[in-house]
Write a structure and sequence with these properties.
about 550 residues; Growth Hormone, Chain: A; Jelly Rolls; 3 domains; four-stranded antiparallel sheet; 19 helices
């Protein structure tokens, strides 16, 4: 824990990383706050049905734009792409605020809000692609990714809470105005980055045709992967429930609890707090042999509190129950995605998760419109109970095939898992990322005197010493010794250069190896940026392999 805190502190002290992470925190707050604001506005003009329709007409264009926007950081200079992304968000959010303050027709408001929703899809992938260019070591990069995850969790709580305060004392227009300013601040923070232009310039820009080809290749791969399709169905069901909650929490706050539009933000904030707590609990899932029981209990925790709110709505209990729902959502998602990582073949893994991410927008849209229809036809309470029962019912209906998935999934080696989790490079990573690394680990041995890597050779693997000792030399001179728990080989992978030192076993040595691509994907947190790293290990280069 101390090492993790030190790594995070190093991120905070770095001026460039501090600017980028603060901008990202503002982005996540903006994303969640303005979504609540536009749904509250729509609910006030036509109830749950209108709110559901508005959610769909925003989510579908955003889902279509997302695959193309995700490649902005691979087509242009990444710092500039991120700057213009934040600037575009600020202008779009400001446009919605102006339309609301001016009393423009709802058609105009929704049209501008669609642009604002689409603009949000540019930030997250560009942010992930930029981070490696700002880090000096692999440890810094992992810590930066951990801080990004923390910012996302905090933003999921703070954004709705801020929206709740603004909606209580003002209106949706104020939410858009305030977060237009937050987005502009993000643009200013990114504009102040001090970095080498060559480090953020993609060497081989991605063209639009590649996006289409890769997207459809993922669907073709899933055609032959029945178990992966099953898990994507379960995970998408959870995302659909989140979309339904976006609509229903507005109705719960205003009509069911009679607490006004501000409570929409507070209820969403409670869901976010529960999600953070649930994410912390998922650490215990790492390395478990069977994950289906966790999937079931997570689903029950996800849905049952919503049923209770529908049966007995109360101001005192609703936030607590929604926090429990958020925790269940985290457990369900992590258990399901970890199973997916275990059973999906390596050659299609990235594409499978890419499709899962792309389907999220559409699942949210389906959940939103379904909730609106249920609330309109049967009332808010019945809608809550149906939505709460959806994920547990889905898992129970699929219980037998899910058990077969669990039995066919290979749990990671406990000893190797414990070793990896002690490494500073991997310690900040979330449970699914750790499990993904475990799926690619290769065990090997080196006899005394055997050269493991040789200076000047091409780098293809990252190594962790499970047991034994090695000698490190550079240009024939002794540099140092490494022992069990140490690692080497990352420089050639991160910088795409020949090996910078020779490592020789001085005792019989047990090694854990990770090939280039899975290693880079793990430490960057973004597959598209893994081949664009530059100047990542300057601090370590003079003295270590």
């Amino acid at each position: 824990m101390k090492e993790r805190l030190q790594l995070v502190a190093a991120v905070v002290r770095d001026p460039n990383l501090r600017r980028v992470e603060l901008a990202f925190l503002g982005f996540k707050m903006t994303e969640s706050a303005v979504w609540i604001a536009i749904l509250v506005y729509a609910f006030g003009r036509g109830g749950a049905a209108t709110a559901g329709i508005v959610a769909v007409i925003q989510l579908i264009p955003a889902g279509l734009v997302a695959p193309f926007g995700a490649f902005a950081g691979d087509r242009f200079r990444r710092d500039r792409a991120l700057f213009f992304g934040y600037l575009g968000q600020a202008v779009a959010m400001g446009g919605v605020a102006v339309a609301l303050y001016a009393g423009a027709s709802s058609t105009i408001v929704y049209a501008v809000a669609i642009v604002a929703s689409a603009s949000i899809t540019l930030t997250r992938p560009t942010h992930a692609a930029l981070l490696p260019s700002l880090c000096r070591t692999a440890e810094d990069l992992s810590a930066a990714n951990a801080v990004t995850g923390l910012a996302e969790s905090v933003g999921l709580f703070a954004g709705p809470f801020a929206a709740g305060i603004l909606l209580t004392h003002s209106s949706s227009a104020s939410v858009f105005a305030v977060f237009a300013a937050v987005s502009m601040l993000g643009a200013l923070l990114v504009a102040g980055l001090r970095l080498d232009p060559d480090a953020v310039q993609p060497k081989e820009p991605i063209v639009a045709g590649d996006v289409l080809r890769e997207t459809f290749a993922g669907f073709r791969a899933l055609r032959y992967e029945r178990r992966a399709r099953l898990l994507i169905l379960v995970l998408s069901a959870g995302t659909a429930v989140v979309g339904a909650l976006d609509i229903l929490l507005v109705a719960v706050a205003i009509d069911l609890l009679d607490k006004g539009q501000g409570w929409t933000g507070f209820l969403n904030s409670a869901f976010g707090v529960g999600g953070i707590a649930g994410a912390l609990l998922t650490v215990i899932l790492i390395g478990r042999q069977r994950l289906t029981p966790s999937l079931v209990w997570g689903a029950i925790l996800f849905g049952a509190p919503l049923v209770i709110v529908g049966v007995a709505p109360a101001v005192a209990t609703a936030p607590l129950l929604l926090a429990a729902t958020g925790a269940g959502r985290s457990v369900t998602y992590v258990a399901g995605s970890t199973l997916l990582q275990r059973i999906a073949p390596d050659e299609v893994l990235a594409r499978v998760f890419g499709i899962l991410e792309g389907l999220a927008m559409f699942a949210l849209a389906i959940g939103s419109i379904s909730a609106a229809v249920l609330a309109q036809a049967f009332g808010i309470r019945t809608a809550l109970m149906c939505v709460g029962a959806y994920v547990p019912a889905t898992i129970l209906l699929l219980w037998v095939p899910l058990l077969s998935v669990d039995r066919g999934a290979k749990a990671p080696d406990a000893e190797a898992l414990a070793l990896l989790r002690r490494l500073p490079i991997f310690a900040p990573l979330p449970p699914p990322a750790i499990e993904r690394i475990m799926a690619h680990l290769i065990r090997s041995e080196a006899a005394t005197g055997q050269v493991i890597i040789r200076e000047g050779d091409e780098g293809d693997r990252f190594y962790v010493i499970a047991d034994g000792d090695v000698d490190v030399t550079r240009q024939g001179a002794h540099v140092g010794d490494l022992h069990a728990g140490d690692y080497f080989g990352e420089i050639a992978l991160l910088r795409d250069v020949p090996r910078t030192a020779t490592v020789t076993a001085t005792t019989p040595t047990q090694l854990l190896a990770l090939d280039r691509d899975p290693f880079l994907e793990a430490v960057t947190g973004h597959p598209r940026s893994r081949e664009r790293l530059a100047a990542v290990v300057d601090k370590r280069l003079p003295s270590e392999p």
